[in-house]
Design brief:
Largest sheet of chain B: none
Helix content of chain A: 10-25%
CATH class of the largest domain in chain A: Alpha Beta
Oligomer: heterodimer
Radius of gyration of chain B: 26 Å
CATH topology of the largest domain in chain A: Alpha-Beta Plaits
Strand order of the largest sheet of chain A: 7-6-18-17-16-8-9
Number of strands of chain B: 1
Structural class of chain B: mainly alpha
Helix content of chain B: 25-40%
Distance between the termini of chain A: 25 Å
Chain lengths: ~1100, ~230
C-alpha cells in the first residue's frame, strides 16, 4: 500500500498573490519539491509498493524480536547503581532544592540595558526573561536570550594570557600594580558604548588619580552620526506609544538598531488594542513607512516600503524635508528625485506627516550618514515631534567626555597614551575600519591589557588578556534606554577563578597598591564592585537598606531617568549628499549588522549561530545577498538556482548537506573578498548586502582550506565560519561603500539554508488584510469578517471525525474542568525576529546540531520561523518589492491529532487539559508521527546531540567512539524540569508543559494555605474551581514571555473573555492553520493587518499577502 | 559382549558433575547478587554513612516529618536535611556517639577530621530521570507520606516499602480514594481511618472507602493518568 497523500485544494482562480519561501520554490526546482513532499529529506524511506512493505515489516519484527531476546542477557539493568543525596551543610538562604529562584538583573548594552529576570536553580542561572516591571521593558531579543549560553561556553576565556600564552596571575597583578601606583601613567581606557553610572563615577576618580588618563569609547557597529548631529552624549529615545506615523530611514529599530523600547510599536499594530480588549479600529493603529535597501525586520513590518540603496536614502530624506518645507539648520544640497514613482511615494508620505505633526516619528539609521541625521532631526523638529510627551525625547546620557577610536589612535601615535586598557565588547583589532590601521598603532603601546570573554584577535595582540566575568557573574549597574537606573546582580560566582568584572578591574587600579580582588574578594567579604555599586546607588536612591533591597527586588530605581536635553541643531554642518545611484558596474555594498552574531562578538554562541537569519534563513555563515534582477544582470542567477539534472535519481547534493552556492569576487575600497552569493528578495537593485562579524578563525577542517589561521581566536562554534568583510570597510564607508565590482569565480561553498525545510502545503497559511477597502475585497470590516473564510475555509465541508472524543466509559477525553490550554499568534505584530526560537531552545534543552546537520534539515528548533515572500502579480509600483510575512509554527496541539493515531507505542497522546504530550521515554523513533504531521512541527534526534558534540568534525558518525561532552559547562545551563532527549527520540513543542504543571501544582498548594488561614478542619473546607484554577493569564510560555512584540498569547481557554487569550480567540482575525483538514488545533493565528495610506501610489498592493502553498 | 557404553562416556559423570557444579555455583552467585536487598526494588536497604533510625526520631522523639524534610510541601523534591539541621540537636544530644562521626566531620569545627563536606546519604527511593514526581502536589492534597514510603516510623534503617513502578502510581491515580486523608493527618503515622470516622460522626461516613470518596469530591481531587502528568 503506498502512502496516501492528501491533496490540498488548488489555489483559486483570480488569486493575485504569488507567494514563495525560497528562490528554489519560485523557480519550482526539484530540490524544493522534495522538501515539500517529504517530512525528512531522504532518511524516512517510504515503501514504494506492497512487496516492499511486507518485507520491511517482517524484517522489522525479526530484528526487534532478536534485540528483545538479546536484551535479557544484559546485566546493566539488573542491579541499581548506588547514588547519593548530598544536602548542603548549611543551607543558603532562599534556596529550596528543586525550586527556581528568580532575580532581577540586566544585560548592559550599547542602546541601553535590557532588564531581565533570571531563573536560577540551586544557584545556576538557566533562563532569562524580560523584567516586565521595568518601565523600559521591551521583551528580550535573541541576543539577550542567548547570552546565558555565553556564561557556560566551553570556549570562554578563563586564563590570563600574556602575549597570547597562559600566564600566572601573580605576574599580571604585578603589572597591574605598576600601573596603579604610577600616578602619571599615560593610561587610556577604551570602554564599550553601554552606560553604567558606577563606571562613570569610577572614571571620574580615575581621571583624578591619573593626571594624564584618557578615556575612549568604541563599538564597531554603533554609529557616531547622531552624537555629532545632536551634541556629545545626547541621544533621542523614541516613545512608540505616542507615534501615529513612523518613518524609518534605513533604521532597523525593531531589529539590530534599537531606538527605544519597541513593544509599544507592536501593541499599536493590533487594531483591537494590546490585549484584544476593544473593537477593531484602524485609527488606533500606527503606520510605518520604511525606506531601506534590503529587508530588515522593521522593513518587513512596514505598511509602505520603498527600496533604494543606502546612498539614496539621504536623497529621499531631502525630498521629504523639501516637501515639508524644512529649512532650519541644514543646507539641502540634493537634486530632486528623478523617479516619478518615488516622488509620488514621498508626496503621499509628506502629506501624511503634515497631517500628523507632533504625533509622528522620523528615525534615521544610526550607522547612516551625518547628512541623513541632520535631515531627520530637522524634520522632527519642524513637525514638533521632539519634547516631553512627544514621540521623541532628547536626553543627556552619562557617556560624556569619551574620545572615539580615531582619537585614540592619534593619541597613541602622539605618545599621549602608552598603556591601554581595552574594555569594549567589540574587537578593535578585528573590526576597526581598515584604513584606520589601528593594529599598527596598537603595536606601539608599551602595555595593553585586553579585558574580554573571548580570546579574540585583540586578546592575542595585547600584552595581557584578562578573562572577563559574564554579566551574570558581576555586580554592576546600567542605564536602560530612557535612562532608568538598573542594577546588574550576580547570580553565581565567576565559574573560573581568574574571571574579573569590569568594575573590579577599575577598582583595582583605583586602589593604592593595585590589588585585584574578584569574585568574593577577600574571604567572606563581598566583591569590591558590590560596595562601589551600593555607593553609587546611595547617591541616587538613598542610603538605607530598604531602598537598596527594593532595588535588588525590582531591578531598577523607579523615577530615575536621563535628564532631558535640548539639542540645538548644528547649523554649521552642511553635509554633502551623494546621490549617484549604483549601477551594475559600480555596485553599492552594505556592511550589515548580523542578526545572529551582531558585530562578531557572538560568533562562539551556538544558539545564535544556528538560529536562521530572519531574512535569508541562512545558518552558521554569512553570504553576500543581491536582488534577483541584479543576480541575473551579473550572470550568476542560474548558478544559484542550478536546476537538478533530469537523469539524476537523487538530488546531486545528496541529503542536501552538499548544497552549495557559487562564490563571487567582490572588489571595493581597493580590497577584494571571495564570498558566496545568494538571492534576496525585496532588495534594491545593484546593492550587495554583506553581514559582518564572520571569518575570525580557521582550522585544518575548513572547507576552503583557509586554515589554520587565527585558530585560537575562536572556539568550536566560531571556527571556519563565514567570511570577514571588515577589511573592506573604511572609516568613511563604515556602513556602505560605493563603486564595488563583482566577478564570478569557479568556487562554490556549502550553505545551510533552512528556508525550504519543513515546508508546508496548504491554502491560506498566513492571512493578511488591509485597513483600506477596495472593490474586490470590500471594506476593512468586510475583510476582517472574511478572514476565517479565506482559502477554502468558506466552502470546504466540515470534516467529521470518525473517532468519538470520549473514552470507553463515556468520559470526554478533554475532561479537565480547570484548565484547557490554548495559544494564539498574532501575525500582525510578529516580525519574525527569532527571540521565541532561542527562548524555546533555552527553556526546553534543545541542542544545536551543527552546520552539516542543519543543511540536511535536522535542526531541532521546536519553533520554525517560516518566512514567506508574497508579491502581487499586478504590482505596477514596484514588482521587485514583495511583502515579507513571517509565521512562527510550532506544534499547534491538535485536538484530533494525526500524529497520535499513528504512534505504535502510544508515546504521543493527548492529555486531559488539551496538550499533545510527548513521552520521550516511550518513543522508539519510528517517525510515523512526524510523517503524519501536516504542520511538520516534529523534530527527530538523528544523533545524540546532547551527549556527543556535533561540532567536532565527523564526531556524530563515530557512534560510541565519538567524543562526549557530558559534564562540560554547557550542561549546567540545562533546565532540570525538562528531559534531555537522547538519540532516536521524537520531540516537539508541548506548550512548556513544565511551566504549566508547576503553576497548577503551586495553585493546589493554595488549598492547604486557605485551610490554615480559615482555621477550620480540612473536612469542612470548601474547594471550588476558583481554588484550583490558576489566576487569569498567570502562566507564560517561554516564547510568549520573550516576545518583544507581544505576538504570542497563551492561557486557559476556560477563562474565556477574562483572559487575553479568550478575547483573541473571539475576534474576527482568528483562524486555524489548515482548518479544512479537521485537526482542530489549539494554537490559532490572527491575520496580519496592514494599514496603508490611501494616498500612496502602492496602497492597493498592500495588505493582500495571503499565503497559499501548493 | 560389546560395551554398552562407548569409551568416551567414561568421562561423562565427571562432565556432568562439573556442569552441575558450575550451574549450582552460578545460581548461588546469581542469588547472592540479585536476591539480596541491595538488588531489590522493594526492600532495598543500603547501609547509610550514619545508621540513622527513623524509628527513634519519629516514634520515640516524636519529630514531624517536616522538621527534617522541610520543603516537602513547597517543592517537588523532598529535601534531605542539611548538616546544620542534624547538628542543631546533636551538638547537645548524643554528641559523643561514635555513630555520629560523619556528622562531626562535616559540622564540628573542633573535630580532628573536620572537613566541612556534606554527608553523602545513599539514595533509597529513586524515580527515573524522566519521571517528574512532585511531593508538594501530593502532601497538600491529602496523600500521606505513609502511602508511598510505608511505615517509616517503624524503620530502624530506611528501606523501600513500595515498588514505585508506573503501574503502582497509576493504581492510585485511578482510585485515589483508597489513600486520601484529611489534610491534618497527612504526616500522622498513627492515623487510623476507622478511628477518625468514629471520632468525627458529623462527616456522615461509615467506611474508609466512603471517607475517601467524600474527601475526593470535596477536595476536587481528580488525578490525571495521561503521560504529561509525570513525563515531560
Amino acid at each position: 500500500m503506498s502512502k496516501r497523500i492528501l491533496h490540498h485544494p488548488e489555489v483559486p482562480a483570480g488569486e493575485t498573490t504569488v507567494a514563495w519561501r525560497s528562490v528554489g520554490q519560485l523557480e519550482d526546482t526539484a530540490d524544493f519539491r522534495q522538501w515539500l513532499d517529504r517530512e525528512f529529506p531522504q532518511g524516512a524511506a517510504e515503501m514504494a509498493n506492497e512487496e516492499d512493505a511486507e518485507t520491511s515489516r517482517r524484517s522489522f519484527l525479526k530484528l526487534m524480536g532478536a534485540s528483545t531476546a538479546l536484551a535479557g542477557f544484559g546485566m546493566a539493568a539488573c542491579r541499581r547503581p548506588e547514588s547519593y543525596i548530598v544536602p548542603y551543610t548549611k543551607a543558603p538562604e532562599w534556596v529550596i532544592p528543586g525550586k527556581a529562584t528568580y532575580y532581577a538583573s540586566a544585560m548592559p548594552r550599547a542602546h541601553g540595558a535590557t532588564p531581565l529576570v533570571v531563573t536560577t536553580f540551586e544557584g545556576r542561572p538557566t533562563k532569562l526573561a524580560p523584567n516586565h516591571l521595568h518601565p523600559d521593558s521591551e521583551g528580550t531579543d535573541a541576543f539577550a536570550q542567548a547570552s546565558v549560553l555565553d556564561l557556560y561556553s566551553p570556549s570562554r576565556s578563563r586564563k590570563i594570557l600574556k602575549g597570547g600564552n597562559a600566564a600566572a596571575r601573580a605576574d599580571f597583578e604585578a603589572a597591574l600594580a605598576t600601573i596603579a601606583t604610577d600616578k602619571s601613567a599615560k593610561v587610556g581606557f577604551l570602554f564599550g558604548a553601554d552606560d553604567s553610572p558606577t563606571r562613570a563615577r569610577l572614571t571620574q576618580e580615575l581621571a583624578t588619580k591619573f593626571s594624564s588618563a584618557k578615556f575612549y569609547q568604541y563599538e564597531a557597529l554603533t554609529g557616531e552620526s547622531s552624537a555629532v548631529a545632536l551634541g556629545e552624549g545626547v541621544k533621542l529615545v523614541a516613545n512608540f506609544a505616542k507615534a501615529d506615523r513612523i518613518v524609518s530611514l534605513d533604521c532597523d529599530f525593531a531589529g539590530t538598531d534599537s531606538q527605544g523600547p519597541v513593544t509599544a510599536f507592536f501593541d499599536r499594530r493590533k487594531p483591537e488594542g494590546k490585549s484584544y480588549e476593544g473593537k477593531p479600529d484602524a485609527s488606533k493603529m500606527n503606520r510605518l513607512y520604511s525606506v531601506e535597501a534590503a529587508f530588515t525586520l522593521t522593513g518587513g513590518m512596514a505598511d509602505h516600503r520603498l527600496r533604494v540603496s543606502p546612498s539614496q536614502v539621504t536623497a529621499v530624506a531631502a525630498q521629504i524635508a523639501r516637501g515639508l518645507g524644512v529649512k532650519a539648520g541644514v543646507a539641502i544640497v540634493s537634486p530632486e528625485l528623478s523617479d516619478p514613482k518615488h516622488v509620488a511615494w514621498v508626496n503621499g508620505l509628506v502629506d501624511d506627516l503634515k497631517a500628523n505633526a507632533g504625533k509622528s516619528l522620523v528615525l534615521a539609521g544610526s550607522r547612516q550618514s551625518l547628512a541623513l541625521h541632520l535631515l531627520a532631526h530637522a524634520i522632527n523638529q519642524s513637525l514638533g515631534n521632539i519634547g516631553e510627551g512627544k514621540p521623541l525625547l532628547a536626553v543627556q546620557t552619562g557617556t560624556k567626555g569619551l574620545g572615539n577610536l580615531a582619537a585614540l589612535k592619534n593619541d597613541i601615535d602622539a605618545k599621549a597614551v602608552d598603556t591601554l586598557i581595552v574594555l569594549t565588547p567589540s574587537n578593535p583589532l578585528y573590526d576597526a575600519p581598515a584604513d584606520l590601521k589601528f593594529g599598527e598603532s596598537y603595536a606601539k603601546l608599551k602595555t595593553s591589557i585586553h579585558f574580554g570573554t573571548r580570546t579574540d584577535a585583540t586578546a592575542h595582540a595585547s600584552t595581557w588578556h584578562l578573562p572577563a566575568a559574564h554579566y551574570l557573574e558581576s555586580w554592576s549597574d546600567a542605564r536602560s534606554a530612557s535612562g532608568t537606573y538598573t542594577v546588574v546582580q550576580p547570580m553565581i560566582l565567576p565559574l573560573y577563578k581568574d574571571c574579573v568584572s569590569e568594575l573590579e578591574l577599575l577598582l583595582a587600579l583605583l586602589s593604592n597598591d593595585g590589588k585585584l580582588l574578584n569574585g568574593e574578594g577577600e574571604k567572606g567579604a563581598a566583591s569590591p564592585a558590590y560596595t562601589a555599586v551600593r555607593a553609587t546607588f546611595s547617591t541616587l536612591g538613598g542610603a538605607g537598606d530598604t531602598a537598596w533591597k527594593k532595588l535588588l527586588r525590582d531591578g531598577f530605581l523607579a523615577g530615575s531617568s536621563y535628564p532631558i536635553a535640548n539639542p540645538k541643531l548644528r547649523g554649521d554642518l552642511s553635509a554633502p549628499i551623494v546621490a549617484t545611484p549604483p549601477t551594475k558596474d559600480s555596485l553599492e555594498v552594505i556592511f550589515a549588522t548580523d542578526s545572529s552574531i551582531f558585530d562578531g562578538r557572538w560568533i562562539d554562541n551556538g544558539w545564535l549561530q544556528e538560529a536562521p537569519d530572519p531574512i535569508s534563513k541562512l545558518t552558521w555563515d554569512n553570504v553576500a545577498l543581491v536582488a534577483p534582477s541584479t543576480a541575473k544582470e551579473l550572470g550568476i542567477y542560474d548558478q544559484i538556482i542550478q536546476l537538478e539534472t533530469d537523469f539524476a535519481s537523487r538530488s546531486p547534493d545528496d541529503e542536501a548537506q552538499n548544497r552549495t552556492s557559487p562564490m563571487i569576487r567582490l572588489a571595493v575600497n581597493g580590497q577584494t573578498l571571495e564570498i558566496p552569493i545568494l538571492v534576496s528578495f525585496g532588495q534594491a537593485e545593484n546593492t550587495i548586502v554583506i553581514p559582518l562579524g564572520y571569518g575570525q578563525g580557521f582550522d585544518k577542517h575548513d572547507e576552503l582550506k583557509r586554515g589554520p589561521k587565527n585558530e585560537s581566536h575562536v572556539g568550536l562554534v566560531g571556527v571556519n565560519r563565514g567570511f570577514n568583510a571588515y577589511p573592506l570597510r573604511t572609516a568613511a564607508t563604515a556602513y556602505f561603500a560605493t563603486g564595488a565590482k563583482v566577478a564570478p569565480t569557479t568556487l562554490r561553498y556549502s550553505v545551510a539554508l533552512t528556508q525550504e525545510h519543513n515546508a508546508m502545503y496548504g491554502r491560506a497559511l498566513a492571512r493578511e488584510v488591509s485597513t483600506l477597502g477596495d472593490e474586490e475585497k470590500g471594506s476593512f470590516a468586510a475583510q476582517l469578517a472574511n478572514v476565517p473564510k479565506q482559502g477554502n475555509d468558506s466552502h470546504a465541508p466540515p470534516t467529521v471525525s470518525l473517532y468519538q472524543p470520549k473514552d470507553r466509559a463515556g468520559k470526554p477525553l478533554l475532561s479537565d474542568p480547570l484548565h484547557q490550554w490554548g495559544m494564539s499568534i498574532d501575525l500582525s505584530s510578529c516580525m519574525g525576529c527569532n527571540s521565541c526560537l532561542v527562548a524555546c531552545q533555552s527553556e526546553n534543552n534543545i541542542p544545536i546540531v551543527g552546520k552539516r546537520q542543519v543543511a540536511m534539515g535536522r535542526e531541532m528548533h521546536w519553533i520554525r520561523m517560516d518566512r514567506y515572500f508574497a508579491a502581487q502579480k499586478d504590482n505596477t509600483f514596484d514588482e521587485g518589492n514583495p511583502e515579507m510575512v513571517p509565521q512562527p509554527v510550532a506544534c499547534v496541539q491538535c485536538e484530533s491529532a494525526p500524529c497520535e493515531t499513528v504512534c505504535p507505542v502510544n508515546a504521543t497522546i493527548h492529555t486531559e487539559d488539551g496538550l499533545n504530550a510527548m513521552a520521550y521515554n516511550r518513543c522508539i523513533g519510528t517517525r510515523y508521527c512526524a510523517n503524519n504531521c501536516p504542520y511538520k512541527a516534529r523534530r527527530f534526534n538523528y544523533f545524540d546531540y546532547n551527549k556527543r558534540n556535533p561540532l567536532i568534525a565527523h564526531n556524530l558518525y563515530k557512534g560510541p567512539f565519538g567524543e562526549k561532552q557530558v559534564g562540560e559547562a554547557p550542561h549546567l545551563q540545562k533546565n532540570p524540569n525538562v528531559t534531555v532527549r537522547m538519540r532516536g527520540v521524537m520531540e516537539k513543542c508541548t506548550y512548556c508543559v513544565q511551566r504549566l504543571k508547576d503553576s497548577v501544582i503551586r495553585q493546589k498548594q493554595g488549598q492547604k494555605q486557605e485551610a490554615l488561614v480559615a482555621g477550620k478542619a480540612s473536612t469542612e473546607m470548601q474547594v471550588n474551581v476558583n481554588t484550583l484554577r490558576i489566576p487569569v493569564d498567570s502562566v507564560k510560555t517561554a516564547c510568549q514571555d520573550a516576545c518583544p512584540a507581544g505576538a504570542i498569547t497563551f492561557g486557559n481557554l476556560l477563562d474565556e473573555e477574562k483572559s487575553a487569550l479568550g478575547r483573541s480567540k473571539r475576534i474576527d482575525r482568528n483562524y486555524d492553520l489548515l482548518n479544512y483538514i479537521g485537526t482542530r488545533p489549539r494554537t490559532s493565528y490572527l491575520a496580519r493587518v496592514k494599514n496603508p495610506n490611501p494616498a500612496m501610489p502602492d496602497a492597493k498592493f498592500v495588505g493582500k499577502a495571503t499565503i497559499h502553498m501548493a | 559382549m560389546a560395551n554398552i557404553f562407548p569409551r568416551w562416556s567414561n568421562l561423562l559423570p565427571l562432565k556432568i558433575a562439573v556442569c552441575a557444579g558450575a550451574t549450582a555455583a552460578g545460581v548461588a552467585l546469581a542469588f547472592a547478587y540479585y536476591a539480596t536487598p541491595k538488588a531489590q526494588v522493594v526492600g532495598y536497604q543500603p547501609a547509610q554513612p550514619i545508621p540513622f533510625s527513623h524509628k527513634i526520631h519519629v516514634d520515640q522523639v516524636g519529630l514531624d516529618c517536616r522538621y527534617c524534610h522541610s520543603f516537602v510541601d513547597v517543592t517537588g523534591h523532598s529535601n534531605v536535611p542539611t548538616g546544620s539541621t542534624c547538628w542543631n540537636c546533636h551538638q547537645h544530644v548524643q554528641r559523643d556517639s561514635p555513630k555520629l562521626a560523619p556528622l562531626h566531620k562535616s559540622m564540628d569545627v573542633t573535630y580532628p577530621g573536620y572537613d566541612g563536606k556534606p554527608i553523602e546519604w545513599v539514595r533509597v527511593h529513586k524515580a527515573p530521570d524522566y519521571v517528574y514526581f512532585n511531593h508538594s502536589a501530593h502532601v497538600n492534597r491529602g496523600i500521606s507520606c505513609q502511602s508511598c514510603h510505608g511505615n517509616v516510623n517503624k524503620m530502624e534503617v530506611i528501606y523501600q516499602a513500595e515498588s514505585h513502578s508506573m503501574g503502582w502510581c497509576l493504581d492510585c491515580h485511578r482510585a485515589p480514594e483508597k489513600n486520601l486523608r484529611p489534610l491534618e493527618e497527612v504526616y500522622n503515622f498513627a492515623y487510623n481511618a476507622e478511628t477518625f470516622i468514629s471520632n468525627n460522626p458529623q462527616l456522615g461516613v461509615k467506611t474508609t472507602e466512603e471517607l475517601g470518596l467524600k474527601l475526593k469530591e470535596q477536595f476536587m481531587v481528580n488525578p490525571k493518568a495521561t503521560c504529561a502528568t509525570c513525563h515531560r
